[in-house]
Design a protein that fits this description.
There is one protein chain. By secondary structure, the protein is α+β, with helices and mostly antiparallel strands. The chain has one domain: 2-Layer Sandwich (Alpha-Beta Plaits). It has a five-stranded antiparallel beta sheet, sandwiched between helices. Strand 2 and strand 3 form a beta hairpin. The protein starts with a strand and ends in a 5-residue tail after the last helix.
């Protein structure tokens, strides 16, 4: 049974998101909810999905993947990424 991924990104200046949208759509059944915000029913874990999408992104772009089914995060270039991960893990009762 696929998991529910919420995927959103912020592009580096001048980057177009066609390649990103294609990479997201390849993860499973995908629906664009808002500009740069998608829901995907996917068999990929959050980190795996983030790695696949990140491979087609500009290194200065930011990405967040939330697996709403398994309570996981995957992210790149988020200014508050470490803080988010800490809060996320704390509320889930996990420690690193």
């Amino acid at each position: 049974m696929p998991d529910n991924l919420i995927i959103c990104w912020s592009l580096a200046e001048g980057e177009l998101d066609e390649g990103i949208a294609k990479a997201v759509a390849e993860l499973g059944e995908a629906v664009e909810l808002l500009p740069s915000v998608w829901h995907v029913a996917s068999s990929y874990r959050a980190g795996e999905a983030a790695e696949r999408i990140r491979s087609v992104m500009d290194p200065d772009s930011a990405l967040l993947v939330v697996n709403a089914s398994s309570d996981e995060l995957g992210w790149f270039n988020l200014a508050e990424g470490e803080r988010l991960q800490g809060i996320w893990d704390h509320t889930a009762g996990r420690t690193h």
